[in-house]
Specification:
Oligomer: single chain
Number of strands: 20
Number of helices: 12
Structural class: alpha+beta
Largest sheet: 13 strands, antiparallel
Strand content: 25-35%
Distance between the termini: 37 Å
Radius of gyration: 41 Å
């Protein structure tokens, strides 16, 4: 065999090997394409979920401890314009004053992980900075609202005898306490010296004293700690991330008559589990709400081109026991349930005669609106809602709305309250939360986490299919070409000798050439010579 023949054989072997490798690569690309189409999104989702649980030094944990977002607290006061007329029997007429806006800074303090990493303890610190540019006025604006400490004092003595109530009435007269106070916005918010608060703390037994010496709706809230939370980190199950375990070392509340109402459910509202479903119920625990507030899906909402799920409280969350049987436990001790749309918080707010509702009595008994003038409930402004990125459990927008109402009742032997009819009296409402997650870096990361996997998948699997198909087709084309060449080569060789084969019989120069029988030594005749 000559060197030229050897070179041809080597070349053939190399081409054969290349075609084999190309075939393997083509099949591999097709398989990878199928796997990417079926499993890529789940794989990326699993990788993201591994980063979500709270752990010391984790990137998600750092953001959780020091959120980049700056929530806004907007407060609206129901300024009473006819206090004297109300005391004479008129409906109260309100002019809403607001918003008065404070920018918030949140941080987690005293973060301490359990040894096994399953739970974490922390405290929430909130700082407030007044934003005059986002407010209709300054903190020195005057508002006229009911004298809540007066009503709280009378409420404490509601079941006392005539002489005790008369003595209280005399004391209120000496201290010059009236039904309404005209006070600055800053004082009503952050507290001011009130003679009834001081008097109460001087005479009450230690277990009944108030934890502050001033009156204000956000007294001791600025630059203070809320209390120690203990929650699950999600290390054992990422769907349990942020779930309440204890608050102030208590595993349940002790205000209500049943275990169900005292149970601490859900998260503190700053974090939710990934893979949210539209048909599930979320819960937010906040001590100021005195319960774990349920939230249900309402609609899809877009933020920064990202789809979120809007969760809102059920319409009957503050319903009567007839409307919502679960609420029976919130009024079983007193036997007096709040009207529809109101939640009595007196048991968890030092006996103050206060009730919560949604702003402007949204979703409440219409008769509450009939007793006042100047309120107009609107879903787009007054509904409590949180828009959550379902894949990661991140809140993109939050509007935590609450209205504080005073329960006014006539007390026969207290001169200051004679003639006051029974009424649920709106005092103020506030909206706490984010209009939009505006931190560009955080938004970019969320967009990448949401859109990048699907974009990569939509590019990868068609590319792999096309590349794999081309490789397999190239191998198929090579094999077909090789077979055709091989057949042509055999025919060319036979034609050169003047011999062709038909139906297993050799034909030469148009004559049939018999083949020798098996074992025969006689050569076939030479037809060329015969010719």
């Amino acid at each position: 065999m000559g060197s030229e023949e050897k070179a041809k054989n080597i070349k053939k072997r190399r081409i054969t090997i290349c075609m084999g490798v190309l075939l393997v690569l083509g099949v591999t690309c097709l398989i990878l394409g199928i796997l990417v189409y079926l499993l890529f999104n789940n794989l990326v989702a699993d990788l993201i979920k591994k980063e979500l649980p709270l752990r010391s030094g984790g990137q998600v944990t750092d953001v959780w401890m020091n959120p980049p977002a700056k929530p806004l607290l907007r407060v609206y006061f129901f300024n009473t314009t006819n206090p004297a007329g109300f005391l004479k029997g008129e409906k109260p007429f309100f002019v809403e004053m607001g918003p008065y806006t404070w920018e918030e800074t949140w941080s987690k303090e005293g973060v301490e992980f359990a040894e096994d990493g399953s739970t974490v303890k922390y405290n929430i610190k909130k700082s407030y900075r007044f934003r005059r540019d986002l407010s209709i006025g300054g903190e020195d604006d005057i508002v006229t609202v009911p004298n809540i400490p007066l009503f709280a004092s009378v409420n404490q003595m509601r079941w006392a005898g005539k002489l005790v109530q008369q003595a209280l009435s005399s004391m209120l007269g000496i201290l010059k306490q009236e039904v309404f106070n005209s006070t600055t916005v800053g004082d009503v918010m952050w507290g001011y010296d009130h003679p009834l608060i001081k008097l109460g703390n001087d005479v009450l037994p230690p277990e009944e004293k108030l934890p502050f010496n001033k009156f204000g709706f956000f007294i001791d809230k600025n630059n203070s700690l809320e209390g120690v939370y203990e929650v699950k980190t999600g290390q054992n199950d990422v769907h349990e991330i942020g779930q309440m375990v204890k608050f102030q070392d208590k595993s349940e509340l002790d205000f209500w008559s049943t275990e169900d109402c005292n149970t601490m459910r859900g998260t503190d509202g700053t974090i939710f589990h990934p893979d949210l479903k539209r048909n599930e119920t979320l819960y937010i625990f906040n001590m100021n709400l005195c319960q774990s507030l349920p939230l249900v899906y309402q609609q899809d909402v877009q933020h920064h081109g990202i789809n979120t799920y809007r969760f809102v409280p059920p319409a009957d969350v503050f319903g009567t026991p007839e409307e919502n049987p679960r609420n029976e436990c919130f009024c079983a001790d007193t036997g007096q349930c709040a009207p529809s749309g109101l939640f009595n918080i007196s048991k968890c707010q030092f006996g103050s005669p206060l009730m919560l509702s949604w702003p402007h009595f949204f979703q409440a008994d219409p008769r509450l609106l009939e007793d006042v003038e100047g309120l107009e409930p609107r879903k787009d402004i007054h509904q409590f809602h949180i828009d959550i990125l379902p894949a990661m459990g991140v809140g993109m927008r939050a509007s935590v709305t609450t209205q504080i109402n005073l329960v006014m009742k006539e007390t026969e032997h207290v001169q200051q309250l004679k003639g006051i009819r029974d009424i649920i009296y709106p005092v103020l409402w506030f909206q706490d939360g984010l209009d939009e997650l505006s931190d560009e870096e955080t938004v970019s990361l969320l967009k990448m986490a949401v859109h990048a996997p699907e974009t990569a998948r939509s590019i990868m699997y068609p590319s792999l299919f096309v590349i794999g198909s081309f490789m397999i087709l190239a191998v198929a084309a090579f094999l077909i070409k090789k077979v055709v060449r091989s057949n042509n080569h055999v025919e060319d060789s036979n034609t050169t000798n003047g011999t062709t084969t038909k139906n297993g019989v050799d034909v030469k120069n148009g004559l049939t050439i018999p083949r020798p029988r098996a074992g025969s030594t006689t050569p076939p005749p030479d037809y060329d010579d015969a010719a």
